[in-house]
Amino acid sequence: MLAAGAHISKEKDLNAHIEAFVAQIKRRQIQGSYNVALATSQLLLRVVSAARWTQIDQLVTQIKVLGKRLQSAQPRELACGNIIRRVLALIREESEDTNDSESGDGAINSPLITSMFSLLSTNDECGPNRQSQSLSDGTGRSIKKDLKPYIIEGIQELIDELKSIDESIASMGVEMIHENETILTPTPNSRTVLKFLLRTAQKRKFTVLVVEVFPNDVEKTHEFALKLAEAGIETTVITDAMVYSIMGRVGKVILGTHAVLANGGLLASAGAAMICQCANVHRTPVVVCTGLYKLSPMYPFDIESLIEVGDTGKVLEFEDGSLVDKVNVVNPLYDYVPPESVDLCITNMGGYSPNFMYRLVLDHYRQEDTTL
Amino acid sequence: MGPKKGGQAGGNKAKVGKQTAQQNAAPEETDQDERLQAIVLSDSYQTRFQPLTLETPRCLLPLCNTPLLEYTFEFLALAGVSEVIVVCCAHADQIQEYIANSRWSNPSSPFTIETVLSPESVSVGDAMRDLDAKGLITSDFLLVSGDIVCNVPFDKVLADHRQRRAKDKNAIMTMVLREASPFHRTRARAESAIFVLDEQTNQCVHYEEIKTRKHMKQISLDPEIFNKHTDLAIRNDFIDCHIDICSPDVPALFTENFDYNHIRKDFVHGILTSDLLGKTIFAHIVTDNYAARVRSLQTYDAVSKDVISRWTYPITPDSNLLADQTFQYQRGHIYKEDGIVLARSCRINSCTVVGAGTAVDDGTVITGSVIGRRCKIGKNVSIRSAYIWDDVTIEDDAIIESAIIANGAVIGASSHVAPGAIVSYNVKIDANIIVDGNKRLTKYLGEEDKKVDTDAVGEDGDGYVYEDASEAEEDDDYEEIVNSSGLVYNMASLNASDTSFSTVSADQAHRKSRRRRVSTASNNTIASEDSDEESFLREAQASVERAVAENHDLDIAALELSTLRMAKNAQFHEVRAATIAALIGRISHLINSNTLKARAAVESVLNRWGPLFRRQVFDQADQIDFLLLIQRDCTRRMQGSSILLHAINCLYDQDILEEEAILTWWYQDPQRKEDADMVKVGELVPRWLDWLTTAEEESDSE
To answer: What number is the ipTM of this complex?
Structure first.
């Protein structure tokens, strides 16, 4: 009796926690894809540890329902959905592994797609997969006992991965940046890019041009430039209008991004698309630094539904009453950068061509989770 | 480029250093910090939104399909408030119910929420006095009304305030002001004010309300101000949305000064012009974020537009503040919820919000409007900058411009609702009707019994034209209701009347004399601590008699009475008794000295002083009590019965007594016939009652 009461209060507690999370994400109190990803994974850790299930399907449904709720709180923040899909994939994988070892038949379950042919025939493979799962339902209880710690461990690993992502990306900097090279970066709000440059500066001497990215990131640009300058990197802040004229002298454009889509396209700070176009014209390589948690299985069918529109007051002064009344101002926070504009994506798993991103998506997410 | 960058970098360096220091110190500080309380005044103590507010409190009116109160709470959550006290006055039950069912009462809410009833308060001052009496305020608190929209990050404002408080205990208040040019759409045109600020410290040294309908050419400042402050800024470019951080001294000061009603024009002005108190008030000027208050229809329109065009980000419709909302953003500031049906040929233009379950038929054009949920909009309808709430039906070919159409209303085919009109809850407008811009239609009956106004709503329509009770208010409103017709119209009406500046100084003289009186009165109370009801009656009667004899201003007399009432903690019953005793005494004196006949005496005294009772007599029970008191008093007088008759007639004409109350008193109240004297004095009344009922019938038959 007591235990049941405790369980109910715990559930209430958890529900309150989820609601608070949703409210915070709506209020933009948790902001930036890294913070959202971290908060989401920590929330999922709590949910999974508190969850009770007899069959793995139940857990998957629970997480999916929760995922839908979290995702709809801020549909344009893709990191939240990505983490949920990662955890779902993790749960499925754990359950399949257990099934494999129990049935002793690993041959059917080879989810790795090795050729074009098997890519088309994935659905056929899913069939027996599901069957074997439902066949082993009788042993559901034992599975649950076994699985919970594994899933929790998996999420914990995910959190550790998130925390160390910048490090692993930064370690690749030396291979990317030459001595005395000029680097241009239009995304000063990216922690990843900052660490990438700072780490590389320990071994290389180079110049960084920071684009101001009016109107949303002007203050961040100045902080960013200051941090680089403090680390002894020669840093110059340039206005957005100067990008084209200076591009000829730039060795590489290094971008941070808000999200990477399945086709290799990016959602990066507004203005990034224009700068990438400039770089393309000058044949300057464009390198993107991104953690895998930003990789989304979504395709940009409707670009506008992915781009967040921000505070109008950043573009136009609100004091100016005569203008406010007469003009419509739109302040999109992100730009869609097509995959053709990008030459290389550096992730914590190594460098990939944008064309190859779909493959990483397949490796990390399950197709059945793409729509939550 | 170079030097500029260097300068900025240097500045940033200092800032960064400071930030890290703050972060390190943060955990310790939060332990010491007291919890931040917020007081939300759910009532506006105004009638600008009538007839809409007859049925719903202003803070629950929908702004972009979300109740206004949600925006306030969202702001408080952003500001990091941990305890919210909502003061309810009108429609308290609705507000309490709403809060109880909202997510703010859930355990996930970032603050605890409590509702406090203050049914008798008729101004901000009353509410503050009530709070002070209840002793709910323990620390510095945030005072807001329930109708603000704001996304200002509050930590800086609060830190500044606390810093000032730590340095000087007399810095009792910080007002948050948003810069905006003088004719900004989001500024309430009827209420603007001049702030005189110290440029360096942002201390507010003078506050002067601008009387919109009068020409103000001068304000007078205390020369002392110029000695104390070297740089003064006199500014009229603020949106003052009444977001204040107050110390617990503020409610206490309200209690000390009974005549303070309005937080700005009474309290701030009073504190700043008083030499004795030595309290200081500061302003925090916001230049970056959004802060506004929905205080009139004009600002309702402007704030709606601001929310739609994302000045208030992240508080926008697509944040889906309510759990069941599903708004999605589309290019051109169009917000659509799930489950709406749009005909192929209809056009939804920019800056529009459409709620769930709404169906829009062929050929309809909607521009810059807000459409609620489950609305049915017919063919070839044109809707332009209108606010249409839930469950509204608009039939084919109707035209709606810059109007508010409340829940459940029906607009007939080919009808035209002109800019500025308000169609309140469930009003039905027949086909081919033109609703003028200055009309407010309602179906709410209240106590009155009105018939359907077929001129306004058509043969098959339902509803009647609402007229505001007090005419002075209506004028104000009228200015505002032409909100959407734009500035030009407003300017014309602003310039219509003219007053010289002498009124201002005269006003001030009054204020000064008032304050002096207040202080003497409170001295008196201290002297006679053991006073009882008797002494109150005696003093109050004397006060009124003095006022009559010396022909004081009515306001001053009323103020004196209320001061006495507060000081002695007397009931309204006693106030009435004292006033009646004094006035009837005067009348009787006039008659006995043969100066005037009974009727003329009653009229001369009551026409001049009758309005005093307006602040003493409220509902029907009060009126009956009042009648009994007059009756009782008249038993002691010569010609008592005729005084009674004429007094009732006179007060009835002044609308202080209502017919129903008089009838109840006469026919039902047992106390009326308690003894022979009472019966005798009432002997003339039946004649008057006959007249009343026949007059009523006549007007009915007309």
So the answer is: 0.84
